[in-house]
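can u do me a favor
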């Protein structure tokens, strides 16, 4: 249940293996974070360890989906440009570069002058940076749409799951306002809505992000070769606190020629309002990094809610105490990127097939028994 990018990816892989899938969505497909996010499919930005390794696998699956026609014209390969504004940030980028290289990822450290050559118009506050050539981009709601088409699984819109249906200590279906639906397996991929259903209320952490959309700077595709991603963004992913105020700014050149500028990380907030203070702070920082933005008009602002977890890793796997129940949530700011890998890993798990990817570190059991309230 839950038709964000994770639910859609799971449904895609399950139906391709011949399973019969029904998708239940409280609102409409991509109504959650998947429709209110950027779409960086980026290994460059990932926290070292399992997240970086899984992102690498996910990016390969994105490429395969393009070759197979599933994501034709939706996924765009492009480099990521990491940039630093302080000496401390230069060090963060150097650490990230070392971690990426250890994984076999190509990187190219750049001085200020070299960055200027590749990204003309950069501001003088940028000290140095790094190019990571092999990343990509795909907008979440467009991926959801294509995966649903490709899977052919029926989607029941405006059908929230209220509770799990249990019998003899096993999950046997779900209870919706329209009645009970019986299933061999129930997969909860409902973002924040997963919390009350599977005992994760105290473990999931919402983190709001505000984003700004400009008009077109180019009518011939993206206005920059790749996104400008601050070392502050890396620091947030690496769970580091930098001495100087450092936001997780990203200036993302969309294929439409527009810019997507973001984003805040507001822990504990679940409203989707944007506010003048946050938007103006992001714009001020973006202008200092890339003064050419001053020519653009702001045409829209919006916010989405990332769902993080207490230990910063997603939660993917079998429920620790309830047979028949599977969970895939807590993707924080990485769900667009990771969705193909999570989708395949979850489909393997549900079908009892050998695992294509090692997601054992994401197992829900690491948080204990996860008692489920109010099931009947
Ligand atoms: C500002 C911002 C920028 C981001 N940028 C990036 C990025 O560049 N790259 C990246 O990889 N990730 C990014 N992300 C993160 C990414 O958007 C999420 O990790 C991803 O969309 C999560 O997908 P999901 O399917 O788990 O959840 P969601 O997309 O939230 O889907 C969950 C669905 O479940 C439904 N639901 C909830 N409760 C129930 C219920 N009881 N019954 C039925 N349905 C229910 C909801 O309506 C929703 O449609 C960003 C997020 C934000 C907010």
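np, heres the sequence
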């Amino acid at each position: 249940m839950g038709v964000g990018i994770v639910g859609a990816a799971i449904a895609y892989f399950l139906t391709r293996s011949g399973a019969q899938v029904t998708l239940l969505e409280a609102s409409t497909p991509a109504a959650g974070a998947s429709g209110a996010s950027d779409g960086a499919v980026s290994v460059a930005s990932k926290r070292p360890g399992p997240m970086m390794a899984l992102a690498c696998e996910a990016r390969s699956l994105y490429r395969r989906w393009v070759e197979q026609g599933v994501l034709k014209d939706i996924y765009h390969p492009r480099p990521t440009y990491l940039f630093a504004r302080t000496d401390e940030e230069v060090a963060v980028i150097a650490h990230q570069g070392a971690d990426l290289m250890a994984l076999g990822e190509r990187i190219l450290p750049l001085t200020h002058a070299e960055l200027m050559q590749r990204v003309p118009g950069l501001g003088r506050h940028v000290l140095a940076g790094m190019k990571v050539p092999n990343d990509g981009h795909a907008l979440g709601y467009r991926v959801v749409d294509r995966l649903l088409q490709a899977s052919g699984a029926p989607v029941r819109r405006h059908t929230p799951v209220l509770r799990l249906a249990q019998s003899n200590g096993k999950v046997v279906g779900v209870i919706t306002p329209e009645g009970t639906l019986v299933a061999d397996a129930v997969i909860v991929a409902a973002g924040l809505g997963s919390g009350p259903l599977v005992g994760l209320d105290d473990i999931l952490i919402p983190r709001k992000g505000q984003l700004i959309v400009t008009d077109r700077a180019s009518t011939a595709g993206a206005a920059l070769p790749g996104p400008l991603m601050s070392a502050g963004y890396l620091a947030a992913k690496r769970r580091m606190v930098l001495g100087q105020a450092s936001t997780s700014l990203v200036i993302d050149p969309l294929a439409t020629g527009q810019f997507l500028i973001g984003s805040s990380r507001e822990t504990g907030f679940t409203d989707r309002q944007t506010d003048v203070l946050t938007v103006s702070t992001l714009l001020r920082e973006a202008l200092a990094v890339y003064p050419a933005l001053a020519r653009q008009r702001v045409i829209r602002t919006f916010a989405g809610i990332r769902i993080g977890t207490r230990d910063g890793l997603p939660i993917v796997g079998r429920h620790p105490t309830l047979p028949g129940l599977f969970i895939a949530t807590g993707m924080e700011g990485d769900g667009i990127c990771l969705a193909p890998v999570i989708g395949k890993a979850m489909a393997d798990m549900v079908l009892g097939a050998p695992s294509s990817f090692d997601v054992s570190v994401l197992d829900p059991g690491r948080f204990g028994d996860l008692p489920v309230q109010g099931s009947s």
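The chain has a mean pLDDT of 95. hope that helps!!
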